[in-house]
Amino acid sequence: PGNPAGWGHAHLPGVRIVRSGFPCAPCRFHVKERCPYCHPSPCMLSIKAAAVLEAAESLWKTVPEHTRSRS
Question: What is the pTM of this model?
Answer without folding.
Answer: 0.66
